[in-house]
Amino acid sequence: MATLVSFHAHPNDDTTTCGGVMRKAHEDGHRVVLVLATRGELGYLPEGLLDEGEELWQRRAVEAQAAADVLGVDRLVFLGYTDSGMTAVTTDGAAGTFRAADVEEAAVRLAAILREEDADVLTVYDENGTYGDPDHIQVHRVGLRAAELAGTPKVYQSTISREHIKANQREYAETAGVELPSGPEFGTPDAEITCVVDVSAYTEYKRKALLAHASQITPQSKLFTDLPEEKFRPMFGTEWFIRAGQGPGVTETDLMA
């Protein structure tokens, strides 16, 4: 048995990008640990969602645990930072936000978990955080440094195939009513991807986990999560990674091999 630690910025990020590999690792008998940098304090907040006195982060923490249970996660850890949001208008440099955290200090926190778990594999994001989210980019920086400190042998940078996004533009636009981003800032060209994992056997778990994050289901994403399985599986049945020292081209199809 090996141990996979999957590091993400906010609740539900893990489900879309690594939900399949986490469930696969679980079913293959490995230990799965999910680390979230924040509790998603600045997430989607529809009017009337919260109970009196309830904060969004409290709801999202409960949802994160429910989704983790679906994905076979053995341990869920919050690293202790707050959500930075997508723009710098209100949070850039704000004390306690993940984007403003000292990389070395945050890496020490994560490295302690990696050592405690004797992690064999760590997932982070690619250097652009898949689509430029500042907390995702910080996951990349902090994760790589933490792996150095802890001596974690295998680090995979989660990404999305840019070609896959382009191929599914029409399907998503027709289903959800919005265009998927597809510019050079979104995802990674296939030529740079070194690991492609077929998780089509686990898409039912990814859907259940996505639905567990009920507070973050927007009108657009509800249409998406309501896709029939024959359309949902091709969209969510593959997960992509980059590992330094691998390639060129795809050289791996399983993080835990």
Q: Please, could you describe this protein's structure?
A:
The model has no long low-confidence stretch (mean pLDDT 91). This protein has one domain: LmbE-like (Rossmann fold), CATH 3.40.50. A 7-stranded mixed β-sheet has the order 3-2-1-4-5-7-6, with helices on both faces. With 257 residues, the protein is α/β, with parallel strands linked by helices. The chain contains 10 helices and 7 strands. Helix 1 runs parallel beside helix 2 and helix 3 crosses helix 5. The protein is globular and about 45 Å long. Strand 1, helix 1 and strand 2 form a beta-alpha-beta unit.
Short descriptors:
257 residues; alpha/beta; Rossmann fold; 7-stranded mixed sheet; 10 helices; 41% helix; 14% strand; globular
Question: SSE layout and pairings?
Answer:
Blueprint: E1 3-8, H1 13-27, E2 31-36, H2 56-71, E3 75-78, H3 103-117, E4 121-125, H4 129-132, H5 134-150, E5 154-159, H6 162-167, H7 169-176, E6 195-198, H8 203-212, H9 219-225, H10 229-236, E7 238-242
Parallel strand pairs: 1-2, 1-4, 2-3, 4-5
Antiparallel strand pairs: 5-7, 6-7
Provide a short characterization of the protein structure.
This protein has 257 residues and is of the alpha/beta class.
Q: Please tally the β strands and state the result.
A: 7
Count of discrete structural domains? 1
Topology-level CATH name: Rossmann fold
**Number of helices in the DSSP assignment:** 10
Would you list the SSEs in sequence order as H and E?
EHEHEHEHHEHHEHHHE
What structural class do the secondary elements suggest? Answer: alpha/beta
Under CATH, the homologous superfamily reads: LmbE-like
Say what oligomer this is. single chain
Average pLDDT figure = 91
How are strands sequenced across the largest beta sheet? 3-2-1-4-5-7-6
As residue ranges, the low-confidence spans are: none
Percent of residues in helical segments? 40-55%
Kindly estimate the percentage of residues that lie in beta strands according to DSSP: 5-15%
| N-to-C CA distance | 11 Å
* Global morphology: globular
What would CATH call the architecture? 3-Layer(aba) Sandwich
What is the radius of gyration computed over CA atoms, rounded to a whole number of angstroms?
Answer: 17 Å
